[in-house]
């Protein structure tokens, strides 16, 4: 049996910061499981919530236990749940979906318009225990450790974006060398891309990228011209596929310019507000653009676990590990803009 109360990291006041609180252990419904959390990853979303910026203040009700990147172990199972066992190690999809929409009924669960996120709209994973619909649970194979389990959510963003288009033999340009951009570069290499070029304006992030994926060509666009890099790689017509992970208008413009005729762009980066787009350039280059949100349920999860079991290695993207009592240090590292993934240990 579990205790009645637990430690949790929560937005308990509508102001910057997060606070370690004593909360009730969630009571599960018949279709849910209770997960004891072992490790969690800190996401950019959690930084927005810590900072209590405009988006967070408009989106997140208080009090709210934050966090959505986790790995743990099932300790309680609802009476309708089949196919899961006590003690099963797992991660899980943090997007809670309905089943009535057109897209859900078509099996495209990640496109359900009523999606709610744990740690944003529903009580989250920065806690000793998390309740989750059994539907959202993703069992972890023995060869995937908890700290990788704790970053499957952002790796899933990278995989969903990178696998938006066929990459075998293609030349791929990725803009934005945050942890997700770096992991997308690793996935693109794993998926058979010929050249993978990763750009940023932050030298520390590019150094980390070279460390995680030595075979990627990093470019600091404040120092090097993408045109010269394409020339050096022998790309006479440009890149075939662009993955925009930064949310920067300048980066999107660079991708459009650098693509071949008929090139493809997947967009994961979120620009702040509206931004001007040179649409005629996109039309005349016959470019296909795809917006990417979350992870496909559960094809992305299936593919990323399969790739991890087949040599995809993103472990070096985790640069900092802290006991959860030192959570403030973990958030400080994230806010520095120099870290990779920061993992908190709840055991
Ligand atoms: Zn996240």
General description of the model:
Strands 3, 5, 6, 9, 10, 17 and 18 form a seven-stranded mixed beta sheet that branches. A six-stranded parallel beta sheet has the order 13-12-11-14-15-16, with helices on both faces. The chain is built from twelve helices and 18 strands. The protein is an alpha/beta fold. Helix 9 (249-258) links the parallel strand 14 and strand 15 (259-267). Helix 5 (152-162) crosses helix 6 and helix 5 (152-162) packs across helix 11. The longest helix is centred in the middle third of the chain and has 12 residues, at 179-190. The structure holds zinc ion. Zinc ion binds at residues 43, 45, 68-69, 153-154. Zinc ion (ZN) binds at residues 43, 45, 68-69, 153-154.
Structure summary:
With 347 residues, the chain is an alpha/beta fold. Helix content is 29%, strand content 27%.
Q: Specify the overall morphology.
A: globular
Are any ligands bound, and if so which?
zinc ion
C-alpha Rg (nearest Å): 20 Å
Number of E strands: 18
Largest sheet: 7 strands, mixed
**Unreliable stretches covering 5 or more consecutive residues:** none
User: How much helicity do the residues have?
Assistant: 25-40%
Average pLDDT over all residues:
97
Q: What series of H and E elements makes up the topology? A: EEEHHEEEEHEEEHHEHEHEHEHEHEHEHE
* Structural category: alpha/beta
Oligomeric form of this entry? single chain
Instruction: Report the portion of residues in β strands.
Output: 25-35%
The number of helical runs is 12
Straight-line distance between termini? 17 Å
